Amino acid sequence: MNDRRRETLTYLTGFMLALALTLAAFAAVHWPVASAGTTLAIILGLGLVQVVVQFRCFLHISLARSSRDDLLLVLFSTLIVTLMVSGTLVILFNLRERMM
Amino acid sequence: MSEPSLQHAGINMGGTENRPDANAESGIFGFWIFLMSDAVIFALLFAIYGTALAATAGGPTPAREFKLDSALAETLLLLTSSLTIGLTVLAMKYDETRRAVLAWMGLTFVLGIAFLALEGHDLATMFADGAYPTRSAFLSAFFALVPLHGIHVLAGCVWMLVMAAQIGAYGFDARVRINVLRLSLFWHFLDVIWIAILSVVYLQAHLP
Amino acid sequence: MQTAYSPIWPAVLGRFTWHDLPFVRAWENPNASEIIGAGAASLVIIGFVITVALLTRYRRWGTLVEWVTSLDHKKIGIMYVAIALVMLSRAVVEAVLMRMQQAAAIGDPGFLSSDHFSQLFSTHGSIMVFFMAMPFLTGVINYVMPLQIGARDMAFPWANSVALSLTGGGAILMMVSLVVGRFSTGGWSGYPPYTGLAFSPDVGPDYWIWAVTLGSIGSTLGGINIACTIFKLRAPGMTYMRMPMFCWTSLCTSILMIFAMPPLTVATALLALDRYLGFHFFTNDLGGNMMNYANLFWLFGHPEVYILILPAFGIYSEVVSTFSSKELYGYVSLVLATMAIAVLSFTVWVHHFFTMGQSANINTVFGIATMTIGVPTGVKIYDWIWTMFRGEVRFSVPMLYSLAFMVTFVIGGFTGIILAIPPLDYVFHNTLFLVAHFHNMLIPGLLYGLLAGYTYWFPKAFGVRLNERWGRIAFACWVIGFYLAFMPLYVLGASGMARRTSEIFEPDFRPWLYVAGAGALVILCALASLVVQLVVSIRERDANRVFAGDPWDGRSLEWSTSSPPPEYNFAVIPHVDGRDPFYDGKRDNGHYRRHAHYDAISVPRNSVTSLSIGVAGLGAAFGLVWHMWWLAIIAVLGIVAALILRSFVRDTHRTIPAAEVAETEHRWHDALNAATPIGRDVEFTPRNQGLAETAA
């Protein structure tokens, strides 16, 4: 029963953290304290943290040996996604800027 | 080396897994790879959404069309369902009673359907307001991204019905167990995608 | 003119009209172009009828069903290669037609209409990439890789079969486009806005979209399967750094498939949304941006180049090492080079559209990244050369292909460096120079490699060596044909001749176009020689059997089984303790050991659901192309139903009893005992029964 308690706690911790991060992001938009650019950075930052939290608590991706393959897979995917998305945005915004 | 072990990659069935299955490890890992491939599809749709954000062609704008209150409600529904699908897996791992597993999965299903209903209502409101996909590139990008996530949620709900039928028919045999694990991965993954949708689509639309 | 033909029964047949049949068009307007179109359609129909007739005549329908429903990775691999060879024949004939047209159309319209010519270059490119190269390499990986890592099957046999049937569905759709309607004229890359609804309202781009989509979904599934198999199913002791080089390149290729196919799926899906539902992703109005498409397409397109080339690199590594009787030189550097190429391939896509208008700084970054890929590729070439150095090189057909590859590929690489420099690319962009360059990369870097692999592993798959003489003739034709057909294109491109031109107005181009045309005819002879080789080999099969399994004194585990291998591959899973386990093992007398006791083995049962997903996929695609909505809806529901049904199947495996395994193994061991070990000097003679002399 001990294992079950521990695992349930992991899920509950993840849930509470995710909830807090979501509400914080909403609050940052609803009661703005910073400029648009800064607020966007805050939102995206909070989102990123929440993704990490969910990967850790819900999807059980950790540094443990048993999930090493998965961790590598997720990190490699992150690399590719970053390359593709940032590349696309840089190129397309550059094109628009030069056409305007 | 990949000696068959009790450690399930990806989802913590841990050392306490009672019924090890040699196929489980590659079965789950293969599903992880599929999810990452799917993630690339979403990532590209996000990138396109980013490039189309300004291309409203004089039509409806993000700030006008996206409602924060319903976005918050949808987020809470999906986040809670992510917790309940986790509890489904724990129930399968420790209780092994059909009732416990089906109860948690049923709750997840209801939350998923509620999410879909709310999102469907949002989209219908947008249509009524003249914000339909053929209006501008921005709306095209939105209607490719968010409903695709919705279709995934719908597929997840259908999958739950199928799993419920299989639990009824076969109990918890090796294939049912591995498919419930895959389903839970899929559902958590959809919640992760939703975080990105919430941040990039809904919250970004209401920056100060 | 077309409006005169109102659609018949629009609810059932969608937008089909009689005018969509090439026979009707040829009847009404009997010029060379239409008659060639009708001829091609007849060939498809005649081929189909002959196949059906032969199957019925020899009562082989059961065999066919047994094959297409099989989940055995070896049968699936062979079927992939069969699809590839059929599609190769069609695409080569199309290439010859285009070369003939250009040679004939100097200051003259030639014999093909410009529309027909555009269809030819679109189908040629689409087929060669998606339905020749992809099935060929997937098939070879499917067949060889599990045997090399000591596995009994792929990680997901059923998904493997689904991937095959989807790819097959796409290939069939390409063939159907010859008979019903017409294909896209937008090239293999299908750039909008030209392929959008505004400029191409006909069925052509829809054929392209759905054929490519079927192929790309199949490839994504295939990639997941290959990667998972290599990660999880290696035999005990087979660490990553002991894997044969071909497995490494297969792994990197599969990772590229997993991450590079989604951009293509997104690109075609969004183009479909534009065409079917009036979205505005790539249109000229309401904010659409066709540059998004170019970006998406090449996010896929560049890694795709390495998906195509890496497996061939692996085959060359195996072939060069085996036929030099030496261990592969620089194994670690080859592994690192392969991984470097795989990662770098995601960082260079912009070099396909340097001229689109982004700033010089961005072009510079991607130009430098492109040139960087030359470094690991160069490392590989040196490693192969060092492998041959002081080896006992035997000039077998696969080895000849490898040598031709090394020389030719380096030339192509140099022209690639030229194109990687943005200012020069502005000059050469969209000329035949580019066409010459990528054929110079892909023919040696893909086709020669796969043909080498085909010749090398054919005895493994069928237990019969291919005819050596016709193999050499085919090789000579491929190489001579390549140089004749493509070297002139460099000159023409540098002189400013645009690619995809159906009529030429510069008389100075004439000699070069004639030489290129002659080269195309030599390539046609190469294709014919391959057919003759196959026929001759089947006729002489009894003289060239290598049932014992090791015709080339092989090094890796696939040679340690009988030829063809039993359904379960290995009666006892081998234990690996080195990089060349079989080569070392047979010299220490460790292999070929008869066991006293064999266990029963579980293998996947045949499945109808995987096949029906492919059939339904084809149906959905055809329905969508012709706006037969009822067909599309039924087919999509059919796919969902098949998926659900399959998840309910519990009886997925059958057991081969221990007695049957023992009998199979004993038969093989008896043959081994009866066979005479041969030296390498007689390996191309009928004395080669597949047992290598190991006492040095």
Based on CA inertia axes, which overall geometry of chain B fits? Answer: elongated
* CATH fold naming of chain B: Four Helix Bundle (Hemerythrin (Met), subunit A)
Helicity of chain C, as a percent range = 55-70%
**What structural class is derived from the secondary structure elements of chain C?**
mainly alpha
CATH architecture of chain B: Up-down Bundle
Note poorly predicted spans of chain C.
Answer: none
Biggest beta sheet summary of chain C: 2 strands, antiparallel
Radius of gyration of chain B: 19 Å
Total of helices of chain B: 6
Number of domains of chain B: 1
Keywords (chain A): Cell membrane, Membrane, Transmembrane, Transmembrane helix
Transmembrane segments (chain A): 12-33, 39-59, 71-95
GO molecular function, one term (chain A): cytochrome bo3 ubiquinol oxidase activity
GO cellular component, one term (chain A): cytochrome o ubiquinol oxidase complex
Structure characterization notes:
- The complex is a heterotrimer of chains A (100), B (208) and C (696).
- By secondary structure, chain A is mostly helical.
- Chain A folds into two domains: 1-60; 63-100.
- In chain A, 83% of the residues lie in helices and 0% in strands.
- Chain A has helices at residues 2-30, 36-57, 68-99.
- The mean pLDDT of chain A is 92.
- Chain B is mainly alpha-helical.
- Chain B has helices spanning 22-52, 62-65, 68-94, 98-128, 137-170, 174-205.
- In chain B, helix 1 packs antiparallel against helix 5 (137-170), helix 1 runs parallel beside helix 6 (174-205) and helix 3 runs antiparallel to helix 6 (174-205).
- Chain C is mainly α and 696 residues long.
- In chain C, 65% of the residues lie in helices and 1% in strands.
- Chain C contains 21 helices and two strands.
- A two-stranded antiparallel ribbon of chain C has the order 1-2.
- At the A-B interface, helix 1, helix 2 and helix 3 of A face helix 1, helix 3 and helix 6 of B.
Topology:
The complex is a heterotrimer of chains A (100), B (208) and C (696).
Chain A: H1 2-30, H2 36-57, H3 68-99
Helix pairs in contact in A: 1-2
Chain B: H1 22-52, H2 62-65, H3 68-94, H4 98-128, H5 137-170, H6 174-205
Helix pairs in contact in B: 1-5, 1-6, 3-4, 3-6, 4-5, 5-6
Chain C: H1 10-13, H2 22-28, H3 32-57, H4 61-68, H5 73-104, H6 114-148, H7 157-179, H8 204-232, H9 245-277, H10 290-323, H11 331-344, H12 360-388, H13 397-419, H14 422-428, H15 432-462, H16 468-494, H17 510-539, H18 581-587, E1 601-604, H19 608-625, H20 629-648, E2 653-656, H21 658-674
Antiparallel strand pairs in C: 1-2
Helix pairs in contact in C: 2-3, 3-7, 5-6, 5-7, 5-17, 6-7, 6-8, 6-10, 6-15, 7-8, 7-19, 8-9, 8-19, 9-10, 9-11, 10-12, 10-15, 11-12, 12-13, 13-15, 13-16, 15-16, 16-17, 19-20
GO molecular function (chain B): cytochrome-c oxidase activity
Subcellular location (chain B): Cell membrane
Domain Heme-copper oxidase subunit III family profile (chain B): 1-206
